Amino acid sequence: AQTVTQSQPEMSVQEAETVTLSCTYDTSENNYYLFWYKQPPSRQMILVIRQEAYKQQNATENRFSVNFQKAAKSFSLKISDSQLGDTAMYFCAFMKHGAEDGGSQGNLIFGKGTKLSVKP
Amino acid sequence: DSGVTQTPKHLITATGQRVTLRCSPRSGDLSVYWYQQSLDQGLQFLIQYYNGEERAKGNILERFSAQQFPDLHSELNLSSLELGDSALYFCASSPTLAGHHNTEAFFGQGTRLTVV
């Protein structure tokens, strides 16, 4: 079974600075996807960034980037130029790659989350 | 707005009761997933439906059941409710089986269930 571990329950950062959230996972799968989701106080789950395991290049989305280390099973999220609106819970998630017969399970396995506070 | 609609937003009920949570996926999405978010268990996958058929089961209790209707909306039924069932229940949808075509799942805003 797959597991996702986020070792930082809470973090804080000053506005405009950079912060890195850690995530490690355990799987015997070779093809999979990794995600970072953001959950602000509104409780909406918002996809921040996605990484395909077969891609060596780290994914980036504007101020958000990841450091994907497949051998180490590590998937950290870097937020640059932090903004007050980045204050939220951040969840790392794992999903198995789909099988060609369509029998895949597309469910996400989540870590416990990191509560990020951006301070003015 | 993700396009996934969940009703009701809040629900308060007593122990032993039964409730139904409803989810309307994004237009055209065939897959629906249900997740439970509680303080002690975090976010857990409950069940997935694809085009009306159950596709995968997670940590779903026997007191809980779900279905997906021909119009693709889904309902999660929770019965014999206990205090520990108090949680935020999310529905998510995706166009195909997520992972099969590299599609993301879009989440609704959740239903906050409080059992008293």
Which features would summarize this protein structure in a list?
heterodimer; A: 120 residues; mainly beta; six-stranded mixed β-sheet; four-stranded antiparallel β-sheet; globular; B: 116 residues; seven-stranded mixed β-sheet; 0% helix
Can you put this structure into words, describing what you see?
The complex is a heterodimer of chains A (120) and B (116). Chain A starts with a strand and ends with a strand. With 120 residues, chain A is an all-beta fold. In chain A, the strands form three sheets. In chain A, strands 2, 5, 6, 10, 11 and 12 form a six-stranded mixed sheet that branches. Chain A has strands at residues 3-5, 10-14, 19-21, 24-26, 32-39, 46-52, 60-61, 64-69, 74-79, 88-96, 109-110, 114-119. The radius of gyration of chain A is 14 Å and the shape is globular. With 116 residues, chain B is mainly β. Chain B is built from no helices and eleven strands. In chain B, strands 2, 4, 5, 6, 9, 10 and 11 form a seven-stranded mixed sheet that branches. Chain B has a four-stranded antiparallel sheet with strand order 1-3-8-7, with no helix packed on it. In chain B, strand 4 (31-38) and strand 5 (42-50) form a beta hairpin. Chain B is globular, with a radius of gyration of 13 Å. Chain B starts with a strand and ends with a strand. Classes of the chains: A mainly beta (120), B mainly beta (116). The A-B interface holds A 32-33, 35, 42-47, 50, 52, 91, 95-99, 102, 104-113 and B 2, 31, 33, 35, 42-45, 48, 55-56, 58, 88, 90, 92, 94, 97-102, 104-107, 109-110.
